[in-house]
Design brief:
The complex is a heterodimer of chains A (about 80) and B (about 425).
Chain A (H helix, E strand, L loop, with lengths): L6 H16 L12 H4 L2 H15 L5 H6 L3 H14 L1
Helix pairs in contact in A: 1-3, 1-5
Chain B lengths: L8 E9 L6 H9 L6 E2 L13 E2 L13 H6 L2 H17 L12 E6 L5 H14 L8 H5 L3 H10 L5 E4 L5 H15 L4 E8 L4 H9 L29 E9 H6 L6 E10 L12 H14 L8 E3 L6 H15 L7 E3 L2 H4 L6 H4 L1 H9 L2 E2 L22 E2 L4 E8 L3 E8 L3
Parallel strand pairs in B: 4-5, 4-6, 9-10, 9-13
Antiparallel strand pairs in B: 1-7, 1-8, 2-3, 6-7, 8-14, 11-12, 13-14
Helix pairs in contact in B: 3-6, 10-11
Classes of the chains: A mainly alpha (about 80), B alpha/beta (about 425).
Chain lengths: ~80, ~425
């Protein structure tokens, strides 16, 4: 990766990964989408792995539990990247 | 003889995914045409270390009409086969199971010899490559041997008995037999039953090859599966699924259902002999057929057709032919017995399901599917194996034999509905 990713770049990548994994249109996934309403626990677990691979970060189970919405995930990823 | 108060069970729908075609119509037409579904292996690369380089793969399977792309990622090929076959069988029956008044009266038993081994291998590779935190949460729901009935129960809202059976190559036979009994006992009215297998994987193929169980006729794949022929040299690994709709007779009559045949007998035994080799005398096979006929209350002389287990292994075919000759005596020379594995190869836990098609159709359509590649029957193999071309016959009773590693033997008896 060249240079830090902006928040909107992270959001685009997160939404694309979610849409791809769930087989839905990107337009159907927004910052306010809640993981519990768009996918089941297995999908969410797989998505966390996808985020880890995509952004080369680690998401602990505790951290993942606190990610309720897409915005939560974007914020978490941005914070983690900034601190790394 | 079974208790006279038992309820009668009929077949009102059939569905199939095989290397002869992804429907009952395509599979049955190909069987009548004596076509082979065996071809050089495509799904994974092989070098010259592989002693077996062909199989009975299904090349044109597309489950999009049953589950969408997202769901497909969550379900192994073995359960997708079962769901596609169940979809066809339920549609064929005309039942609206999803909107059943009492879904607890409908159930499913689907057998598989091996289950989601493709997922197991891919998951294990991932574990070794990337460590435990990258193993997909879908590995278990994909690989478990009961994934097929689990998914089919969701597909059709089946809330009665739902389970898998694992008895290697006899799995379908047990599944259909136990489903029949569930209806006879009164536990339910409709059972979605059969078997599924998708085990043409590097691990499975190499392991069967190491057992010397497989044919190595690499230069002639379509001639490799040759049950009862003196040059047979092992079975051909294949894949697929078949599902039958078993229904309580009055339930079927009330809705004016088309009835293919009545399922009247189920016999099951264990060899208690060797974990992989057949009992050379075929004692377990003999008893399974005897018990199935007794369960049906049918005399051996009424049997017109046997769909043999007939895998094309030297010992297995010999044991089965011997058992049939001893059980049926002179009548063995009047009935016909063919092995459609000569065309489909051996789909392990799905075999007995796929082979209900020729068994049922011998009664329903009066055509006996051939044993292809039968050029020179082995010594003492002097029965009517329906060699190479189909035969017309009026069959009132047909047997479907399936025998599995572990010494599991099942025989089912289908009867013309009257």
């Amino acid at each position: 990766m060249s240079g830090p990713l902006s928040e909107s770049e992270i959001e685009a990548k997160v939404i694309e990964a979610i849409a791809d994994q769930l087989g839905v249109a990107k337009a159907d996934v927004t910052r306010t989408s809640e993981f519990d309403s768009i996918c089941d626990s297995l999908d969410k677990a797989e998505l966390m792995m996808e985020f880890e691979d995509l952004f080369e970060i680690s998401i602990t189970d505790d951290a993942a539990t606190k990610l309720r919405t897409v915005a939560d995930a974007v914020d978490f990823i941005q914070r983690t990247l900034k601190n790394s | 003889m079974r208790n006279a108060t038992y309820r009668r069970v009929v077949v009102t729908g059939i569905g199939c995914v095989s290397n002869l075609g992804c429907s009952v119509a395509k599979t049955w037409e190909a069987m009548k045409a004596g076509r082979s579904g065996i071809s050089p292996l495509r799904t994974f690369p092989q070098n010259e270390d592989w002693t077996v380089r062909f199989a009975g793969e299904i090349h044109d399977f597309d489950p999009s009409h049953v589950v969408d792309g997202r769901e497909q990622k969550r379900i192994d090929r073995v359960a997708l086969f079962a769901m596609a076959a169940a979809h066809e069988a339920v549609a064929d029956s005309g039942l609206d199971l999803r909107n059943a008044a009492d879904p607890y009266r409908n159930g499913t038993i689907i057998g598989s010899g091996i289950g989601g081994v493709l997922t197991m291998e891919e998951g294990h590779t991932k574990l070794l490559q990337t460590g435990p935190r990258r193993v997909s949460p879908f590995v278990v729901p994909r690989l478990m041997v009961n994934a097929a009935p689990g998914n089919v129960s969701i597909q059709f809202n089946l809330r009665g008995p739902s389970t898998a059976v694992a008895s290697a190559c006899a799995s379908s036979g047990h599944a259909m037999g136990m489903a029949m009994q569930a209806i006879q006992r009164g536990d339910c009215d409709v059972m979605v039953a059969g078997g599924s297998e998708a085990a043409i994987t590097p691990l499975t193929l190499s392991a069967f090859a190491s057992m010397k169980a497989l044919s190595t006729r690499n230069d002639e794949p379509t001639r490799a599966s040759r049950p009862f022929d003196k040059d047979r040299d092992g079975f051909v690994l294949s894949e697929g699924a078949a599902i039958v709709i078993l229904e309580e007779l009055e339930h079927a009559k009330k809705r004016g259902a088309r009835i293919y045949a009545e399922l009247v007998g189920y016999g099951a035994t264990g060899d208690a002999y060797h974990i992989a080799a057949p009992d050379e005398q075929g004692s377990g096979a003999f008893k399974a057929m005897e018990f199935a006929l007794r369960d049906a209350g049918i005399s051996a002389t009424d049997v017109g057709y046997i769909n043999a287990h007939g895998t094309s292994t030297p010992l297995g075919d010999k044991a089965e032919v011997g058992a049939v000759k001893r059980l049926f005596g002179d009548h063995a020379y009047r009935l016909a017995m063919s092995s459609t594995k000569s065309m489909t190869g051996h789909a392990l836990g799905a075999a007995g399901g796929i082979e209900t098609i020729p068994a049922i159709m011998s009664i329903y359509e009066g055509v006996l599917a051939p044993t292809i590649n039968l050029e020179c029957p082995d010594e003492g193999f002097d029965l009517n194996f329906v060699p190479n071309t189909p035969q017309e016959a009026k069959v009132d009773v047909a047997l479907n034999n399936t025998f599995g590693f572990g010494g599991h033997n099942v025989s089912l008896v289908f009867k013309r509905f009257a």
